[in-house]
Every structure is written in C-alpha cells, then in structure tokens.
Amino acid sequence: MSRIFSIVLTFVLASAPVYVSRADDHRHTADERAAARTDSEPIAPDRVRIDVNGLVCSFCAHGIERSLSKLEALDTTQFGGDGVLVEIDDHRVTLAVKPGARLPLEEVRRRIEKAGYEPVRFHLPAGMDPAAPGDADAAP
Fold first, then answer.
1. Structural domains in the chain?
2. Averaged pLDDT score across all residues of the chain
3. E strand or H helix at 109
4. 59-64 — which CB contacts under 8 Å span 24+ positions?
5. For residue 3, how many C-alpha atoms fall within 13 Å in the half-sphere facing its CB?
6. Confidence grade of residue 61 (pLDDT, cut at 50, 70, 90)
7. What pTM did the predictor assign?
C-alpha cells in the first residue's frame, strides 16, 4: 500500500508546475516578466497587479493561478496561455485583461481568499473601469 502511495505522490508532484524565482522563471519570457513589473512606471492598460499575503511557495502559486485562470476577462494569449503571472519572490499576481473587458475585482478577491490567501492591495491602471467598486492602488 505504501508503494502505491509513493507512486501516486511522485506522479502528483511531477505533474504540478514548478514555480521558481524570477531569475529562473520556467515558463515566462523576460519580456513578459518585464511587462508585469511596474514598480516605477504606470501599470500597463491591460494589466492588474495584486499584492498577496501568504504567497510563499510553488503550491501557493499553483493554487492561485488555477483559480484565477478561470476568469473570463483574462487575456489567455498572455503569460503562458492563462493570463496569470505569479511572482513568489514579490508576493504578487499580475493579470492580463482582455481589451475592453471588465475584470470583476470582487470575484478576483473572493477566488484568492478561497484559495487561502489574502489580497492586500490591487494596483489598477489609470482609467480602468472595473466591474467592482475600487480606486487605483486601493484594496477592494
């Protein structure tokens, strides 16, 4: 029985995506990471950045990415095909939003909390019209 458990555990761990620091990011190009980084510049009009407490490991990242990638407003041509970029080192999630789409911030907050984490701050681009109330650089 323990041999079967070991085999199943090995398969599960081997099939889960691996999240590493930005320097060794496994699936995002340097251009994608640079587009998500907006510490000193205005946020791109099609991006939403969220600071998340508790985002510390690859399993955290995988859970949040899986949950958020189901949002219909995401541009799935960005960030590896799901519109979600998770940066463990910065405790940050960046979402690529379809042009003209309204991102439901309350739904985003709910999904992050349901995954077991705390969305601390939403950084919105100037002029974004979210589907939920909230100002730029404000928590929902």
1. 18-123 (3.30.70.100)
2. 74
3. helix 105-114
4. 59/16, 60/88, 60/117, 61/19, 61/86, 61/88, 62/16, 62/17, 62/19, 63/115, 63/116, 64/93, 64/111, 64/112, 64/115, 64/117
5. 0
6. confident
7. 0.65
**Secondary structure element (H or E) that encloses residue 95, with its range:** strand 92-96
The tokens describing 47, both together, are 């991006």
Tell me how long the chain is.
140
- What is the per-residue pLDDT across 82-97, written as a single tens digit (0 to 9) for each? 999 999 999 999 999 9
| pLDDT score, position 2 | 67
97 closest CA partner among 67, 77, 120? 77
End-to-end CA distance of the chain, in Å? 48
